[in-house]
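TL;DR need structure tokens for one chain.
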Amino acid sequence: MVRDEAWDGWLRRSPSGTELLVWWQEARDGMRRVGRDAYRERLVALLSAASPRDCAAAGFGCTRRSDRACREPSVCRLDPAVPSAEEVPLREREGPVRGACGGFHGLWADFEVHVRFSGGDDRHRAVFRRDTAASAVRLWVDGVPVGSGADLDSYGYWLGGRFLVVWAEGPEDHPRQSYGPGTLVTRIVSVLIHDAAHGSARTLVPGPHETWTDPQVVLAGETLRVYATREAQAADVPDRILPAWPAPG
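>> reply
TL;DR here they are.
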């Protein structure tokens, strides 16, 4: 097992981090003992309860370098600074930064995992697991499956520490639809938005006049604004404007 001794102080205070470290870095033995499916399910459960510093201490790659473990624990293991009111909406942290990065990656031969924390107090976390043989992606938010049966991208991002945005496969009958290589099989994509505060999700499907090839979602005050591309976002030409918060009652 490869261990970064610089994280020992943190791991002594974090049983969840220690368990994640052993489970991840002894993956071959774990899969041999309990089987691949059971191993991966347990890994998702551990990641769903982990903190950013647990992930860094366990040796996952981070948003700064996805292919290697944290190289600056002297900074990343420190308690994160409390964000000020001016720092809302909260952005994903990228290291070296106090409290560790806001996203982590791990890869084995037949599957990969990605974790995205919601920022600020890291109250919510999204865990993506992509099984490479089947090109299938599953998503859990705070340990609960989300988007069951949908073809999802293996990445997502948080808005305001509450809304998770993930691309999903677009409609087959869209007039601009085409197929090509990539995590998703279609050129026109849909958008899944999960509200972690209410545990609810909605999938936005583009209509025939909405060419969502690179959709961007922005939280603006009380609304979620959906743009077809980054260029449309820069020009502030949204395709849809939706209420961010559920209606009373």
